DNA sequence: CGCCAAAGCGGACACGTGTCCGCTTCAACG
DNA sequence: CGTTGAAGCGGACACGTGTCCGCTTTGGCG
């Protein structure tokens, strides 16, 4: 899109991301001012490159998100739509479990994109999966990606010690609600 | 439980709640320091009476919550369990729509109670409804109140302009997932 | 080259939450 | 009543987020 930036700016941006990745990987508390310090830039610089905390996190996790998104068509090629959707959501859960920040960032990213009348990459992946299911008649026709994103949002509120018992379990319940009545 | 407090303390507590109700009713931004100022107390006082923002809000909305909780047995007396649950959740949605803060406070309250190995009043109401459904064989036996609380948490993240289209719709989807397969 | 406008920078600042601690006030008891 | 110790108070403080603005750097252009 618009990439003719100044060289030093691009540099800073990269250094910020690097610092952010380092902090995210080690500490569980992600403090923006610390990231700025580590990157050797002022807060202002950090905030111009990434207007909100979420923009930064979204970029940090971008690779993971891309990976996840790329999985959707692959799953659809190998399985029926509902199975593909199930597997995909399981994978989402797995990401959310390991990298606690992933899902929060994704969700925030979606909100950001919402105003732009888009659901973002994650939403697009879900739309693909749902469309396939709808076409096959195995998914309720009145469910869209935004619905699912809202529902799986519980992942951000799950306590650590509930993960094993509830994360997948709730996905199953959601899927039951999303399937066409057999 | 433990009510032999000092008179002036009880007074302050009441004044804080009064101020909080006033702020909640008018402004949509709820600033604790403003509430403290309006109540004519220091921040320290406010925070000792209500350790966190959520404790305060929970108390502000306590009456609404009690009302909602009291509804559950009434609904169960008049309808089959799944219908009762449906109506109850619809009522929850209605509360959440009007008083935006209600549900966030409730959810936070639940989290607080979680550590005390309790689900709080809302959780208890849901447990009653779910138990009835389970006994009647119309609700999946592996769903508990905590599951539902997590799922309906989407209400806190719903944008204002999505309410009409999504709030009830998602409740229906959840209910489909929670019902026993017929 | 050297100029200079725009792009970028950094850190001070404003604001909200929640904590801490020395002073004040209550109320129980002699 | 006066004493007294604990309950309660208030506001200063620490900390994180996000904004703002005067100074610096870059790099295109003459």
Question: What attributes characterize this protein structure?
Answer:
homodimer, 182 residues, mainly alpha, Arc Repressor Mutant, subunit A, Tetracycline Repressor, domain 2, 2 domains, 0% strand, DNA-binding
Largest interface: A-B, 26 and 26 residues
CATH architecture of the largest domain in chain A: Orthogonal Bundle
The value of Rg of chain A in angstroms is 18 Å
| Major sheet size, sense and barrel closure of chain A | none
Q: What series of H and E elements makes up the topology of chain A?
A: HHHHHHHHHH
Helix tally of chain A? 10
Number of structural domains of chain A = 2
**Structural class per helix/strand content of chain A?**
mainly alpha
Oligomer: homodimer
CATH class of the largest domain in chain A: Mainly Alpha
What is the CA–CA distance across the termini of chain A? 46 Å
Strand content of chain A: under 5%
According to DSSP, the number of beta strands of chain A is 0
Q: Supply the CATH superfamily name of the largest domain in chain A.
A: Tetracycline Repressor, domain 2
The amount of helix of chain A comes to over 70%
GO molecular function, one term (chains A, B): transcription cis-regulatory region binding
Pfam families (chains A, B): TetR_C_43, TetR_N
Keywords (chains A, B): DNA-binding, Transcription, Transcription regulation
Organism (chains A, B): [Actinomadura] parvosata subsp. kistnae
């Amino acid at each position: 899109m618009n990439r003719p930036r100044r060289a030093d700016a691009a540099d800073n941006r990269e250094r910020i991301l690097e610092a952010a990745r380092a902090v995210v990987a080690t500490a569980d508390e992600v403090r923006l001012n610390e990231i700025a310090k580590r990157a050797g830039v002022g807060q202002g610089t950090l905030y111009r490159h990434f207007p909100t905390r979420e923009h930064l996190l979204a970029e940090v996790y971008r690779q993971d998100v891309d990976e996840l998104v790329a999985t959707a068509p692959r799953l659809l090629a190998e399985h029926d739509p509902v199975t593909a959707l199930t597997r995909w959501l399981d994978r989402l859960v797995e990401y959310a479990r390991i990298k606690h920040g992933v899902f929060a960032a994704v969700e925030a990213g979606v909100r950001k994109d919402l105003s732009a009348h888009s659901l973002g990459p994650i939403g697009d992946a879900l739309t693909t999966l749902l469309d396939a299911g709808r076409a096959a008649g195995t998914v309720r026709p009145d469910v869209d990606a935004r619905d699912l994103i809202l529902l799986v949002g519980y992942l951000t509120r799950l306590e650590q010690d509930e993960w094993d018992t509830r994360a997948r379990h709730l996905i199953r319940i959601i899927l039951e609600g999303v399937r066409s009545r057999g």
